[in-house]
Structures are given as C-alpha cells and as structure tokens.
Amino acid sequence: MTVRENAKAELTRASGMKVDYDCVKCGHRWAIDVTETEFRSSLDPSRVYACPKCAQRVGTGPVRCMRCGDGFVLEFPYWHVHCDRAGGNCPACGARYASLCIC
C-alpha cells in the first residue's frame, strides 16, 4: 500500500466503515462512511450526506400516500443496510404510511 492508501484506510477505520448506498430517490450507488453503531442499527439523524446525483439526503426518500396520493419525504433509517423499514404520517391527510422490513 502507498502512504496515501494507508492514510485513507486509517481514516476509514477511525470513522467506522464504508457501505454501498443506493439512493432511495434515483437509485444512484456510491459509498458512504458509517460508524460501527450505525452499521448495527440506524443512521444518525443528524447526517447531512446527500446523493451526488439528485441531492436527496441520505436516509430519506420520497413516498406517495396511499390514501390521498400526495408525495412526501420519509425517513428510511435502515436503508444503508438494505432494509426498507420506515413509517410516518402523511402531512396532507394524516394517514399512517408504513413500509415493513423485507429483509
């Protein structure tokens, strides 16, 4: 390994690990750094990473209300480990939106 590769590997170990992330909105794939705690559970809600292609914030994605049809952004806190479990209320009509885990 070069000095640069060693430094990058040390930085990755210090911050946790890299995981492949597929944008919920556009499907673009890129690597993000996650801590060991995040890898074992949910993403930290204070994350500010965004998709380099469409600017959708990591851990969030667009959904459509099944009652009124309005679109809104929902938290997907486990998406980084390819789990689609999410839930929230439609801001337009208040209907509960739930996506159960498929993993």
| C-alpha geometry | globular
- Which series of helices and strands comes N to C? HEEHEEEE
Parts with pLDDT < 50 across at least 5 consecutive residues:
5-14
- Mean pLDDT across every amino acid position: 87
% residues in beta strands: 25-35%
Rg, alpha carbons:
16 Å
Euclidean distance between termini CA atoms:
36 Å
Overall structural class, as computed from helix and strand content, comes to alpha+beta
Helix content: 10-25%
Assembly form of the protein? single chain
- Number of E-state strands: 6
Strand order of the largest sheet: 1-2
Biggest sheet, in brief? 2 strands, antiparallel
How many domains? The number is 1
Total DSSP helices: 2
Description:
The chain is α+β, with helices and mostly antiparallel strands and 103 residues long. The chain has one domain (3-99). It contains two helices and six strands; from the N terminus they run αββαββββ. It has a two-stranded antiparallel sheet with strand order 1-2. The chain is globular. The termini are far apart. The model is unreliable at 5-14 (pLDDT under 50).
